[in-house]
Structures are given as C-alpha cells and as structure tokens.
Amino acid sequence: MTNQNISIINDLDDNFSKSKLAHQFTNGSSKEQFELIPQLINMGNTGWEILIDFLKLSNIDNIDLVQGEVFRELYQVKMPETELFIQEYFPNGLAPLDSQVNINYKSLSKLLLEQNFQEADTLTRKILLELAGESALQRKWVYFTEVANFPVMDLNTINTLWWLYSGGKFGFSVQRKLWLSAGKDFNTLWRKIGWKKGNHWTRYPKEFTWNLSAPNGHLPLLNQLRGARVADSIFSHSVWSEKNW
C-alpha cells in the first residue's frame, strides 16, 4: 500500500470520526452536549470545527444555554481560527445588544464572556443608574419608583447577557425565580443567594463570590442594605411577562 493510499485512509478515518462526533453532539440532550463541550474544545481544530458548525446552523433568534456555553468556550480559545469565526459571524457576541436608549452593551458582554464577574457587576450598576435617569446618576443609587421606567429592551439585554454567559446561573430572572419559589420572602432569598449569612449581611466585595462556584442567583448585586423595594420593583417589572422569562 502506497503512502498516498495510507494518507487517504487516515483522512477517511478522521472524517468519519469527526462526522460521528458532530452527530453525537448535535443530537445529544442538553446534558450530554454540556458534557461534550470541554472535550471538543480540548481536541483542538477538529473539535472547534464541530462547535463552529453547530453555531452556524443554530437558530440564534431563540438562544439557549448550550449555544451560550459553546460560544463562550470558543471565545476563550483565542486562536486565529476561532477568532476569525467570531469576528465574521458574531462580532458583538452571541446575544443581541439591543437598547432603547442607545446604551452600548459591548463592554458588559465582553466582561461576562471573560467571566470577569466583579467588573461586570460594577458596570451593571452603572448602567442601571443610567437607565434610572439624571437624578439617580447624581445620588448614585436607584430609587424603587424609577425601576418601572426601565425599558423592557434594556433590562432584557442585561439579563440575557448575565444568564447566557453564566450558564444560566446568574441574572435577575434567576433571582426572581428563586424569590417566587421562596414565596416572595426576601429574607429567605438573601440567604439562598448568599447575600446574607445568619443575621449578618455579606460584606462587599471580599465576602462575595466572583466566579461560577457562587450560589445560583448570587449576581448581579443590588443594594439590599437599602431594603428590598428596588429588588421587588425589578422582579415585578413587565419584562418578565413580555419576554417570557
């Protein structure tokens, strides 16, 4: 057998293995897909190509957590192949950065993709001040009556970025679901998401957990020391019914 024939057979074997892996990933359950993502990333080019093809064929009008995890992992590879794909297909990230009031969400998207959660949290609070208006910017905190005027589009963008790039662990919608499951009891919520331990408030910033080992709903932070009214207003905002969270 010639070297050329051996090369052709090896190529066929590689193509078959790639096709089999691609089929396994594309047709697997969400749990199976999550388990396969790091394996495919660690394979190098072959694995990256499978994940890239998966995103190219995905319905990005209805983004799910598997797509978010695939994109975040490819983003962190930072190799010419993956960076070229991202620049060509998703230069602003996987999630739309829509704003009704012309706020630029690129920095927030980038921080969350890189899992720089502490800086993303700080930026989120600044954006909420901007959404609340000039008075809030001057006083440097949001008053609960200002929350109802937050544009649905912007609150949805903020929440989607946090939810998508944390694997569904963080975001206002996650906090809201935990609040509802606790019978809308904020003291129970604060303890469940790690903002309070016993009778003591978690101290900012050192006692908060700025990575994915944190409890579900741990981030983004709200100033609960001023009471629960801002949180209540956010959890009661019309975005949750209009966007079907």
Automatic annotation (TrEMBL):
Residues 99-237 form the GUN4-like domain. It comes from the Bacteria. InterPro entries: ARM-type_fold, GUN4-like, GUN4-like_sf, GUN4_N. GO terms for cellular component: outer membrane-bounded periplasmic space. GO terms for molecular function: tetrapyrrole binding. Gene3D superfamilies: 1.25.40.620, Gun4-like. Residues 10-91 form the GUN4 N-terminal ARM-like repeat domain. This is Gun4. It comes from Atelocyanobacterium thalassa (isolate ALOHA).
